[in-house]
Design brief:
This protein is of the alpha/beta class. Helix 5 packs parallel to helix 6 and helix 8 crosses helix 14. The mean pLDDT is 94. It folds into 2 domains: 139 residues, 3-Layer(aba) Sandwich (Rossmann fold), CATH 3.40.50; 258 residues, 2-Layer Sandwich (Dihydrodipicolinate Reductase, domain 2). The protein contains 15 helices and 18 strands. Bound molecules: 6-O-phosphono-beta-D-glucopyranose (BG6). The site of 6-O-phosphono-beta-D-glucopyranose has 4 residues, from loops. 6-O-phosphono-beta-D-glucopyranose binds next to loops.
């Protein structure tokens, strides 16, 4: 079936932090792609803001460079780029004072009748002050939306403070908390797989599933973000949001519809059912690591401390966790999560490992019978594989083999998979909150994460070292092998 392009209503999108990394790498390229696809109405406008003094023309040149850098050249038609850049305006302002705001008000109000979207691609400590000024300058109407990026806080208390500050200006129905993993194509497909097929639901529970593994591995280090990263670590940067959201989509009960709250209510219940991990259980249920110099992506790479330019740090660049969900569907089924920087490859996938057959009627010559696995690959090459035992073809007796029923999306559909931000930004304009985190979800996630981080801090132990280019500290292998299981080789 061909993909469909449904134009959205006229909108004015204001990007705070328009000259920053996120804007250059993700937001401007995503808007460009949607523009070329014909999804932006004629009068849709994008206003960049930041402290930097710049004319609209200079911002357009800036955006041209960012897009050329981050969009593959085959997708870069000059006339399309020109038409996109014409939509861009720029206002220089100070988020922390009233300087420049009257200009922004004039510029925004030119989009009469438009849906207004304020995208806060800034440091989180500016979310409150910017929201407040959007309010005091009279820019909030019925059709106004605000988009905030993670991290929302660094623990439950600070997340509540940030949510309160935003909530003083915007009602919850206007707040879009982005977790870009929810916009990824395969994550959408996980919903389709679970809820548009009758096949999986009867076996999607503790009676048939042995365990679940969720891996989000990156081969890159902390690059230019060491300053931020050292205050966060893998637990806050990846587990609190992306990985718990993936876990929710695997574990949640079937929502009654795709309506935002129908889905978010179910995700919330999963978060609330996570078995707490605290000082008593953290050592057995978690492993944290920090990379040392090694080799990754084909070359020698420095260790975390060198990238940070510090002689010591207790920040974890790797985490694995054995999470458990205390409800009827999942009691006794471990969800093993692992994520890290400088691992052997960039790969994100969810593995649902089913229980072994209760009895084999085949003799030893037939080979070992593996358990069935459903592998949902988010990146790099999106697809779904269902691993099944089959008979080796041809004569020679019954020889059993484990092979995947393989649906690689790029091959199957031959279309460009849109970046998560393309879908998410337009969902904001459409007013669809299904793929955005509700306040109570974010806070429930912190409620589970906080005691783990506290336990680590109280233990006085440093993260375990691992060599860049390996799958984390050996303790992570022990974490799962103690249970008689093993991490599946990502890439299978
Ligand atoms: C971000 C994290 O949210 O997700 C980064 O802050 C991480 O540290 C990134 O690299 C991973 O996203 P993706 O889409 O490349 O898997």
């Amino acid at each position: 079936m061909a993909s469909r392009v449904i134009p959205v209503s006229p909108f004015t999108l204001v990007i705070f932090g328009a000259t920053g990394d996120l804007s250059q790498r993700k937001l401007l390229p995503a808007l460009f792609h949607r523009c070329v696809a014909g999804q932006l109405p004629e009068d849709a406008r994008i206003i960049g803001t930041s402290r930097r003094a710049m004319s609209a023309e200079e911002f357009q040149a800036f955006a041209r460079k960012a897009i050329a850098e981050h969009v593959p050249s085959k997708d870069l038609a000059e006339d399309g780029l020109g038409r996109f850049l014409e939509r861009l305006d720029y206002v220089s302002l100070d988020a922390g004072s009233d300087e420049g705001w009257p200009d922004l008000v004039d510029c925004v109000k030119r989009g009469e009748g438009h849906i207004r979207v304020f995208y806060l691609a800034t440091a989180p400590d500016l979310f409150g002050p910017i929201s407040e000024r959007i309010g005091t300058h009279g820019l909030v109407d019925q059709q106004t939306r605000v988009v905030v990026e993670k991290p929302i806080g660094k623990d439950l208390a600070s997340a509540r403070a940030v949510n309160d500050a935003i909530g003083r200006v915007f009602p919850e129905e206007s707040v879009y908390r982005i977790d870009h993993y929810l916009g990824k194509e395969t994550v959408q497909n996980l919903m389709a797989l679970r809820f548009a097929n009758a096949l999986f639901e009867p076996v999607w529970n503790a009676a048939h599933v042995d365990h679940v593994q969720i891996t989000v591995a990156e081969s890159l280090g902390v690059e230019g973000r060491a300053g931020y990263y050292d205050t966060a670590g893998a637990m806050r940067d990846m587990v609190q949001n992306h990985m718990l959201q993936l876990l929710c989509l695997v574990a949640m009960e079937p929502p009654t519809s795709t309506a935002a709250d129908a889905v978010r209510d179910e995700k919330l219940k999963v978060l609330q059912s996570l078995v707490p991990i605290d000082g008593r259980t953290a050592t057995a249920a978690t492993v944290r690591g920090q990379y040392r110099a090694g080799a990754s992506a084909g070359g020698a790479v420095p260790g975390y401390l060198d990238e940070l330019g510090a002689s010591t740090s207790r920040t974890e660049t790797f985490v694995s966790v054995k999470a458990e969900i205390a409800n009827w569907r999942w009691a006794g089924v471990p969800f093993y999560l692992r994520t890290g920087k400088r691992l052997p490859s960039r790969v994100s996938e969810i593995v649902v490992a089913f229980r072994r057959i209760p009895h084999s009627m085949f003799d030893g010559e037939a080979g070992t019978i593996e358990n069935n696995r459903l592998v949902i690959r988010l990146q790099p090459d999106e697809g779904v594989k269902l691993w099944l035992m089959i008979k080796d073809p041809g004569p020679g007796g019954m020889r059993l083999h484990n092979v995947p029923l393989d649906m690689s999306f790029a091959e199957a559909f031959g279309v460009r998979n849109p970046d998560a931000y393309e879908r998410l930004i337009l969902d904001v304009v459409r007013g669809n909150q299904t793929l955005f985190m509700r306040r109570d979800e974010v806070e429930a996630a912190w409620t589970w994460i906080d005691p783990i981080i506290e336990a680590w801090q109280n233990s006085g132990e440093a993260p375990k070292p691992y060599t860049a280019g390996t799958w984390g500290p050996s303790a992570s292998i022990a974490l799962i092998e103690r249970d008689g299981r093993t991490w599946y080789d990502s890439g299978d």
